[in-house]
Design brief:
The protein has 1323 residues and is mostly beta strands. It is built from eight helices and 92 strands. It holds the Pfam family Beta-prop_RSE1_2nd.
Amino acid sequence: MVESDVISRMCHGSFSRAGAQEVIRARTDGIELCRFDAGYQCLVVVSRLPLFATVQSIITVPYPSISGGTSAFADALAVSSDSGTVTLLRYVVPVAPVLGVNSHTKDADGEWEVMDRVILGRSGVRVSSAGFYLAIDTRSRALLVAAPMKQKLVIPLREGEGDDRGSIKFQSGLDASRPCVMYDCCAVDVAADQNTQFAILESELASDTTEASPAGPPEKFLSFYEFSASLNTVTRVLSVKVASSAHALIAVPGDSGPGGVLVCTDTELVWESVASRNSASQQSIAPPPIKVEIPRRSDLSFQSQDPMIVAHAITRLPKRFFLLMQNELGDLFRVEVNAASVQQHFSMKRTGAAGEPPLVVRYFDTIPPATSMILLKKGYLFCASEIASHGFYQVIRDGTTSKTAIKRVRMPTVAAAPQKAQGGSKATLAAPSRYVTLFHRHFDELTKLPELRNLLLLQSLPNSNESVAIHAALDPQQRLRFVRLGGRSGQHSQLQTVRFGLSTSHIRSIELPLNPEVVIPLLEPSSLLPNPGMEDEGAGAACHNRILLSSAKGSYVVHLGNEITADNNCGIITSVQTIAAATIAEGHGYIQIHAAGIAIVRPDSPVMWAHPQMKPITAADCSNTQIVAGFDNGGLMAFDLGFTGQQFSVSSTQPTFSNVKFVSLPRKAPFHFCAVATAASKVFVLEMKTLREVDTISSPVEIASILLTTLDSSNRLFLFVGLIDGRLIRAEIDPVTGKRIQTSAYQCGTTPARLSRGDSTSYCIAASSEVWRCHMLDGAFRISPIIVNQATVSPNSIFAAAHRKGLRFGLLLSATGRTISFSSVNLDERSASLYSVSTCSIGTVGGRKLVAHPTRPNILAVACTEYRGYNPNDVQNVYAENKELPPAVVMSERSPNRLSKHVSCVHLFDSAQNVASPPLYLNEGDSALAMHIGSFPEFGKEPVLVLGCTSHYDHGHGMQAPSWGETCLRTYRFALPSLSGPDGVLGTHATAMPKLELVHATILTHGDLPSAVHVCSQGGFVLVGFGPKQGLHLFGWGLKHLLWKRKLLETFSSRIVTIDTIQDTTTGAMLTAAGYPPIQASNSATTLILCGLQDQSVMIARHVRCGGAQALLAVAIDPFPRMVAAACFIDDRTVAVSDKFGSLVVLRIPPTTRLDLPEAMDGMSDEELVAATTFRREQPLHIVNSFHVGQTITSLQAVVRPKVAGITNGPTTVLVYATSQGKIGALVPFPTEEDAALGAYLDPILAEYFRSPVERPLLPHRSRMTPKRNVIDGDCVQLISQSKQIFLSTEAKTVEKSGVLCCCDARPRFSLRMMKSERVVTQ
């Protein structure tokens, strides 16, 4: 439902046509083609291709230079994925429809097609399966496909022949595998007459016959492999030992630079080249090293660890290149090296002369750390950020003039291996040192905050954080609403409230001299002028430059420009109340209709018309060429202004027409119909020439508004009728006969539904208690809510929509009282999700747990823990040592020196107000590990928060095991504000944010780590999960601390990571059906407990009360080992489990499962209980459904959705999940058994209809990791429903009885995704 914004890989090239500068962005399971828009200074998405596979790597395959010279063909794209294949794709654009011209249209939409595909293995997710690394020769002679370990393939490329001319084909691959670990690879830029070279950073693996290397960092080598096309062989020609901290390779251009590669280590850059090594060996001299140290940030000079290089971007210019690289702290560096300086350096080294190194590294700027960077030739830098928003920048300076280096200091190196001292057995630590150049970050001189000096931010794109936890609930309209906790670190941790609907952003509000009753956007005259030959530039698009506001006191005109100002010079009469207005055809003036008559406002020949009998006009509407007006005491007249708007004449009259209440005309020609609503709650469709009645629609209630308009470019005409009870009737009108084709009804709210035009051609606005957008998408009607800012609107607000030149979004106008507000609305549903997101930052400590308050659903508790972070006391200490940084900057940093230093706090979040409370910090060094909210009968059923924490926690690094100090359970109560205010009136502070107060702390004497906590409110106890030795413990309420009650006697070989409970309601019936004796009355109140084990799937236990005693019994287990990431109950017999590899399974307790003992447990000892529950091993859970999502599911929640009239027979359980890359989805059961059977029948048909471009033949998508079972993929169904061949109807149906419309569900429809009789699907 909510797509991920994470960008994993990027590349750039000319994919649609030769010479175009385009960017390919690889999302988690698809790719996007983007093009730079010079007018808007941003990247625009041209095409999207869903792959239904996890993209591992992408690379541009240039076409021109396979055979040398220049070619007019566009570039291709190589994609490797978890399907175990490498696929060559090309973007095919339609040929221009000009006879004799073989060129592509400028901005026409194309489609991706597969040129060739090679299968590398059964799966691409294994460490030894090639596909993780891709490298292409600059002349596209060969493609290197490598794995992180062992496997390397060089695949030669060739041009297509015959009908395949213009395409690229794979040849048989050459195996170059060796027993080694690969860290990075790249293609070396060599001359056209030389063999293809690839550089690989690798380290040897110890084989069975060789002696293992001693402990320490592995020896790394830079190896050069050469591919000979004539001999069809791959040979390793050179291997150079490099530093153990080497981790990345950067290819240096050979035409505009010296060629070779740059080896990135933690401390320096090293340039290597095969040609320089060969030249030195021919002269029998040692090759002179060319290296330079990487500068270090001055404010982090106290850190002992050096940052790694994580991304780089390079662009080729005539006779030079521009190279930027970035470290993990976000610092950008510009690297300069040229062939002349390298040759001069070699000459000076041979003669023994000293000189400056040819390699120069300068600090450039600081931006958020990126996973991938693209640098275009025109100086635009696009950075796909890892945790912050993606940024599109412009390079405004080359960075050579700014002086940021301040001094050189001596620092010890990080790698200090223990060495044995001479003459003794004690080991000493060698501490070599080095000199480092420090630089100042760019800071604003006044605010002391970081700023950009060489870059200019042009566009910021959203980036979904990792969904650590999610809370789903139903809003008053029974739509799903989410609160998502984005974990990550520091200032990037945030809470997001996700609601269904188009998002809006408030721009500004202005005060008016009147209270408007009508808001009419007026088209800009230039948008109506004929502009032949500009179809490709979007001519004819609606553009508004004035807003007319009318009330009983008169009219007021606002001009939309760079500033919003009053306009008194347009000729509109402001002393009268305007009923309708429009711009005349070809922009020759305006039409203004008021009660006294019609005014044609033209600069040359204005026209004033009044009824011959002086009848006042009560209702009217006008287009740019036609007018229809209704009069008091009956009567209807139509007027025509001609094609150019220069004429004015009465075209037809109906003097006996009943009292007219509303009139509507379509704005788009050529339609010869109008709609008229009367006080008798009837809507008539009339022919314009004679005003003859064509069709009639009767309404059961009073009509609030009508609108006759088009919704797409296919001239489909629709009539909308808004009713006073909030319903909306939609009727499609035949554009030839005017007859009604189809009628549907929707519930838009509880207040009268008022309609207004959008851009007059493609969408309209329906406003009730909610605001909706009505439009067409892929040939189907869609009604989508618009999320408006409740602070700027009221139930009596008047809405309208407008468009402005230079804006890629629509304007939503809302008039409330004397205030009119302007908000931007993203109307492109293909580029934006239908879910709006409001964000709330929770400070500088990363969020880890999210739990909702049981009695106040809008209040949620957030547990935050930051590893190697700073608490407020540490910030002041660091700031005292380094006055150059403000405390806000210090607190947002993470220091590698602060080992085992945790900062933890707890926030309360109000999702209704989108506000978080100040943090409640724990003791210094404490870590919050688990949290839950529930109530105890002994505490008056007031909800309390139980927090599992420990001190001095170290999760372990290297070969060290995790360690921790004292562990405890902290219990907090919610201190509610006083309900009586200072004035003595009750309810003054009822909506204020509660505060947390510590009740008591329970020390855990056994010392194990509380990894999961769950408070069972129905049973009045708290469950705590520990490691393999302690297992599951049960605690009760106590005055001074929690009281230990019971322990699950059976332990497991894995840690408990998640706990969920549900009341058991069907045990008695199941036991009776299985033939067991009736259970005793002591077992009436039981609770089922779901425990997710770290790597042993799930276990189900049962809590039993017998008199005053309590017991925990293990009753069932999943026999398949799964690395559990999340688990929850769907009902008391069904559970959902997700693992860390992106798979989701639904398990069910079989009907024959024994959940209780056949006799009372009053007198049984612990040993007897263990012996009596040995049947658990013979009671496995059954798999009902399984599905591969492709991303690690971090949170699962079951939400019960009430019965929907006409769609479901009863309540529906929706299973909501959130992934590690920010995606939110849901699984929903089929409404009936018949629908499930139909879905099972259509499943193979749908899989055959849609084939993933990177999919291996004969394998359905999304089923590579675990077999798909009883699941219909809703995303696949959605793509098929959007395709040209529509064979699944998604149109709403309407039942009409006795003239009364029975409305179907107006909420978004569910796409099929899962099931069978057990039923579980995706929205």
